[in-house]
Structures are given as structure tokens and as C-alpha cells.
Specification:
It is a single chain. By secondary structure, this protein is mostly helical. 64% of the residues lie in helices and 0% in strands. α4 packs antiparallel against α5 and α4 (63-87) crosses α6 (118-128).
């Protein structure tokens, strides 16, 4: 997703070719929709990822917090998609789309480069505050960094 988002960033914000933004945001929106409402294993980015790392041992990560993080990704990609459509004819939409894209890229970079899932951290925070119900089983996180006491 970081690679796809970076392609959108370069095309839209460096080369000023806004026409590609709805396509890429739509792809990411579809990816999150499939991952959340069908099965994460069938999302396009997961299929490519599994192909690229097929000889590596999987590291199981708790589905509860990843579902929450993917829901945030769905929200962000939906907003970017929605706002990138009027951007095609009105450059005034550039700043909100740019800001959302930068937020997405930073979140993707944190997870890809450093293993920090901000959505998972927000899930943990929401559980601690009592906004979300504590899970029956403590979710598994990279290095137990975001475990939730049950």
C-alpha cells in the first residue's frame, strides 16, 4: 500500500497529474472493503504480499486491532477518493486531499519501516478508555507492543 500511495503522491503532488488520484484511492478503498467485509486474505495487497513473502514464516497478528486499523484506512481512503473527484476540475481541493494523502503515507511508512501500527495503538487506547469493549482474548501484536490486558 505504501508503494501504491507513493505512486499517487508523486503523480498528484509532484507532477500535478491529479487524474490518477481517484483510481489509486479507489483501489485502496476496494482493498479495505474486501479486507473488512469479505476476508483480508482476498484483498489485492494481501495477495501480492503473500506472493512476495511466500518463503518466510508468518508472524500472526491479532485480527481485532488490525480490523480497527483497516477501518481507519477505509475511512481515509474513502475520504481521499471522495475529495479527489472534485479535484479533477477544481484545484481548490488540492490541500485537503494532499493533507489526507500525507497522513496515509506517514501511517503506512510507520507500519512498513518501523512495525508501528498507529491504528492498533488507537485501538489499545480506545479499549483503555472504555470506548471499546475489551476483547475476550488478548490480541497478538508485533513484539507485544500493543497488547491489551484482559
Amino acid at each position: 500500500m505504501l508503494v501504491v500511495g507513493s505512486i499517487a503522491f508523486v503523480n498528484g503532488f509532484v507532477l500535478k497529474r491529479y487524474v490518477i488520484l481517484p483510481y489509486i484511492a479507489g483501489f485502496l478503498l476496494l482493498n479495505f472493503l474486501v479486507g473488512l467485509f469479505v476476508n483480508p486474505n482476498y484483498s489485492p495487497t494481501m495477495l501480492v504480499s503473500k506472493l512476495l513473502v511466500r518463503k518466510q514464516a508468518p508472524i500472526p497478528i491479532g485480527a481485532i486491532q488490525k480490523r480497527f486499523a483497516w477501518s481507519l484506512g477505509l475511512l481515509l481512503s474513502g475520504l481521499i477518493f471522495s475529495l479527489s473527484l472534485p479535484l479533477q476540475s477544481n484545484v481548490a481541493w488540492f490541500e485537503p486531499v494532499c493533507m489526507l494523502c500525507i497522513i496515509c503515507l506517514v501511517l503506512l511508512l510507520l507500519e512498513t519501516a518501523f512495525g508501528i501500527c498507529v491504528g492498533c495503538k488507537l485501538y489499545q487506547f480506545a479499549v483503555r478508555l472504555g470506548w471499546l469493549k475489551k476483547p475476550d482474548v488478548a490480541p497478538n501484536c508485533m513484539g507485544d507492543a500493543c497488547s491489551v490486558d484482559t
